[in-house]
Amino acid sequence: MTVSSRPPLVLILKDSLIAGAISLVIFGPICGIILDGYTFNTDFKIPLILTSIVTAGRFFFSFFGLPKLPDLSRIHPLANRKPTVPDKIFLGIVFAVFLIFPFVGSKYWLTVMILALIYVLLGLGLNIVVGLAGLLDLGFVAFYAVGAYGYALGYQYLGLGFWGSLPFSALIAATFGAILGFPVLRMHGDYLAIVTLGFGEIIRIVLNNWLEFTGGPNGVGAPLPTLFGLEFSRRAKQGGTPFHEYFNIGYSSTYKYIFIYLALLFFVVVIITAVSRLKKMPLGRAWEALREDEVACRSLGLNHVATKLSAFSMGAMIGGIGGVFFAAYQGFVNPSSFTFFESALILAVVVLGGLGSTVGVVTAAVILTILPEALRDFAGFRVLIFGILMVLMMIWRPKGLIKVKRPVFLQKGKG
Amino acid sequence: MEKYILGQQLVNGIVLGCTYGLIAVGYTMVYGIIGMINFAHGEVYMIAAYLAAIIIAVLTFFGINSAFLSLILTLAGTIVITSVYGWTIEKVAYKPLRNSPRLAPLISAIGISLVLQNYVQINQGAGNQGIPAVVSGAIKIGGGSNFFQITYMQAIIILAAVASMAILSIIINKTSLGRACRATQQDPKMAAILGIDTDRIISTVFIIGASMAGVAGVLVTMNYGSFDFFVGFITGIKAFTAAVLGGIGSLAGAMLGGLLLGLSESLFSGYVNTDYKDVFAFSLLVLILIFRPSGLLGRPEVEKV
Amino acid sequence: MPERRFIRFAVLIAIFAVVIFTKDQAYAGDGEIRLGIAGPHTGAYAAFGKQLWRGSKQAAEDINKVGGINGKKIVLIKADDACEPKQAVSVANRLVDRDEVAAVVGHFCSSSTMPASEIYDDAGILMITPASTNPMVTDRNMPTIMRNCGRDDQQGVVAAEFVIKRLKAKNVVVLHDKDTYGRGLADAMKEQMNKLGTIEVLYEGLTRGEKDFNALVTKIKAKKADAVYFGGLHTEAGPLVRQMREQGLTAKFISGDGIVSNDFIRAAGGNKFVKGAYMTFGADPRKLDAGKAVVEEFRKSGYEPEGYTLYAYATVQIITEAMKATDSIDGEVLANWLKANTVKTVMGEKSWDKKGDLKVSDYVIYVWTGDGKYEEYK
User: Are C197 and C307 contained in the same domain?
Assistant: First the structure.
């Protein structure tokens, strides 16, 4: 910031003092007067420190200007243009890192990456509904829950193992997606949002109350995944042979996670490919057209019912698959894992990634999963910092990390 | 006996409904003018609850025990402080995103929601907080063991809801500030060209919305006596439902939606089953929205092509 | 563009570095025994997490002062699950892999203990919960999972006997908060009460986190109830009992160990609302001779060891004794020793059955006196 464009010092000082006064009002009561039973204790150190930081910070930034942050999409491959050879090599290396990671990384970070990949799946699913079709869904967690419970209950009542449950739960989740789609056909914007939110809550409440069928708040145990009948547990619980006994190697709980990770990675790649193809096909185009201008679509003969229902169903199906992996990973499902906060988190992944951008969703999912884990060392401040970062990320990149450019036809000779 | 039980359930429902309505009105105002779902609204309500407890504790410390005085001073103090909170939240989290795609402020609001919850939790502790009963006594109708009642605190809540709606309606419809708000809502660019300071109008709307949440926080906390840092979230969702039910953007709709929601919850809980009352409430919402996609009193969005 | 390639490869190197350098780090602490203290250290139930932590910390200090475990010092590791199963799983993995704990004191909420115990069982690590009362914790045949508290099916039985035989109630309402602990407790009480010949006039669940139960209270009034049994925690019990009294309902209120905390008074809006509320709880450890000295120590430092504080203290003692006697940290070895022996703790002598439950459960009825305390109801 050049000296000449900076406002006069007096104004900056006044600004900072006002900011300080406001901070006192904000921090004073809540931070300074701590409730203790029906009485209180005072501790004015904290509000005073915070006020000073705000005043000084305001002065500093008014004086020197806000820092400029780099534009991520310049270095990201696949952003807005066809991949070139160096891009492909880069992507290949990234994929290789992902592939060998489970064998060299620590088990703790392996579990974190499994969660990250699950959120990638969820983000991809919601991306279809919100990003591509433009339908604001605040209850996506419902399909996630249906997938997870489908796996757990499928084992309990129908004896379905991991590979049998995947198509089963995916289909059930897709059906739920269609069920949600029907009533909301006529709704738009924020009305749609609240209804989907309600749907998410209804699923969670039913799962929590229906003790006889779903185990209620106690949840249901989920079996471990199997590879051709070989289980990954210490003792065989599903009647087969444990994996480690078959290959005569010592038992390590890491094998289970490696297997889940690799299966998950496989599915993520498959779905990413499928979605990119769909985007270029008429169905994908129909979704994006619906998002941009529904009235125009309908006037041009597009069947908006089929388009909306297919968006909900596909998104729900992918969410359901994510749920199956989550259940297999945690070994246990319980309604408290499927609250509105999860829906909000998945939505944050999609928005942060840039609506409609697959690459963005992957990046955002990884970041938003690793962040709370990396912040674990900050204990009590973890969620606070996470929330602050969410706000900052939105202010920094409101259109998402990766700006999605749509193919544009420019007339030759002009533009 | 049944008549009195029904009477009591109706009272329960109306009071609960007024609670939702008070908060829903704040949501609806902000949405009506700016078109933004302010998810952090519920957290302002939660902060008001803590402020109420703090102010009452301080007043008791200084020996002020009169119910009337406590109520007035707590309301005044809380309204001032929550207004400041509302203004700051708008300035910090929403203003930079005013020209961004619609979803960005939504995520920012969710982030602020988390920040406020944890900010309070870190400073005040994660446990349940409570205040002693300040206003006691009730108006009983009927006698002996067959009666229904409405406590003074509950009556105050109903009065406050009606009063706030009346005051807000007067402000929006009869004052120049209200005219400026309506102009900004209809066409912000045009309003700016015509000389309205839209920035200031938007800030003012947020401040008013926050003070409504503040009033709700004080009264509801004094009524139930118990709260924690998470009450904002649950109440926020219910209030948002009420606002949508009544038609977002309509003040009367917010109150109506709130009453409908409160009554349906209480009556379903009282006569059918408490376990599924939320399922019933949401199903009711879906049903109403299917037949009236813009809510009960909402203006149908006219899409120009 | 060269700069782009440079930034990209810098990012790659960073990722590699993170991957390689966060490999499981073996702690150099061979001269110490690490215990994980798992529970809700943050979140709405943090008050209980604090009880667990203070109790364990005091026990570790006292034991370390007299030489630790066979010369090794006890080091405590705080593991926060915020009473959420997902976090419980995550933190259990961390304790097992990164922190390499020798045993775990925890968790608190039954819904967290269940998934976490699978991980400890899988890794062969001893886990003793000082507070999870859901029967399923030890009903699943896991050799290293044990308890240092009662079970809900014992607690519910005691409550049912009390309500029917001593309070002689005829119209009983059974409520729960739809969560693992609350519902389990209410169901156990209901089952026993039905066996004694009384059917409840109402059985319903309220939602945790809500504050308005007026409609439910009115419904209870309509049923002319003379006793209300609530399985749940003080956060809901407080407003419930307050609204009951405000609406003029004089029915007796009985609950479980979820309201054993002064927070109950606060949640209910004052002593006048909690007066006369009954609850089941283990014999108050603060009254036992074995623990008087320790209780004094706590009080001297300004902390009243209410609730689960002494349960956690005793659990650390139990783990210590087992490790001293077997000179091992193998979960099964420790568990087998405990199931065959008696340990003297601040809560008296403890011994276990094959499932890992305490042999003697000593649930007793307490009543809130209305002046801020609770005492045994004889």
Answer: no
